[in-house]
Amino acid sequence: MAIVGASLAGISAARAARAQGFAGRLVLIGDEPHRPYDRPPLSKDFLAGKMTPEHLRLESPEDGEGADPLQAEWLLGAAARSLDAATRTVTLDDGTEIKADSVVIATGAYARTLPELAGLANVFTLRTLHDAQDLAPELVPGARLVIVGGGFIGAEVASTARALGVEVTVICSGAVPLSRPLGAEMAGTLAALHEINGVELICDASIESYYSGEGVVSGLRLADGRYVPADVVLVAIGAEPNTAWLAGSGLELGDGVLCDPMGRTNAPGVVAVGDCAAWLDEDSGEHRRVEHWSGATERPALAVTALLEPGAVRQPLNLPYFWSDQYNVRIQFAGHARDADRVDIEAGDPAAHSFVAVYYRGGQPVAVLGANQPRLFTKWRRQLNAERAVATQATAAAAQPVLAASPSFI
After folding, report:
1. Dihedral over alpha carbons 201, 202, 208, 210 (to 10 degrees)
2. Sign (positive or negative) of CA dihedral 50, 52, 56, 61
3. Can you give the C-alpha Rg of the chain in angstroms?
């Protein structure tokens, strides 16, 4: 089994394979030189200097090079160049070919950039450990940080930077940050955290031009004429699936590697997991990427089951779940805001940023949002996943062929 991507999703797939009885040769390929590490802390405790690279490791100390419980071969610092899905052959940048009986694609995603800012010394993205190590020294008291993008990475870095004494401006193209994952109403409530904590939030904004000289950006001019000075710029405008290396592989690609609800691609013996994988969402009938930590830990086990047991029955899939720490508020969300037609506050006070909000479609709860309410949020999340599991099992049972009764039983 070749796993392309030494990421959280990749190591989760490796662990699942061993747990499910796979005793064959296991090869993990990673383009970074590091063993798998945890990415969520990069925008928070690591950037704040509270964690070291060793704290990020996804393997415990006893799982080191000399005592790998996975009994895997690690090819690190070696990017995959191509895949022949028909023969399940992975070719690396150095020309090495790895032929496998099964392939797990876990190559993740890469940060989107702004081409006009390429090569400027004070412009950063945040996706990898190397990115965080480059950005951290720039976040000094009094520095002016401009964050382009109002997503989770931008919000978390804004929170971390403010705690370090940095002056922060967030420029968002939409009416309010996070309206897509949370819905406009709840996103508007949480957006107030920025201004409460001294961050300048500029929404409905577009950047007209950049001022640069001597290899750095000194400021940005917005379309409405405002000038925003900058000592440091973070581009946080989302990510693209890392699938360019799969061109010509024979796999169906879209916004990621297109998969069925258990991670199977159109090629036998090849599955995809993590941020690069677009699994079929049976509720909407569309392929969707789930770029969250929980998806990278839960879904690989299903995909490995599909590899090791080709006839495996469709298994329940938990609702997408994510969390974000911003300004000492733990934000948790499960489900899809797009499925809801109303939102009710079930507990707490949104003005105090301590509440649970439940999203409904008709009378059915379809998603839940919690802010500093971990216990009650978890209760709702479990309930929603339990209901989803029952629905999945009922659908699977209905899809089974009905056998005609034997005459002896009539």
Report:
1. -20
2. negative
3. 23
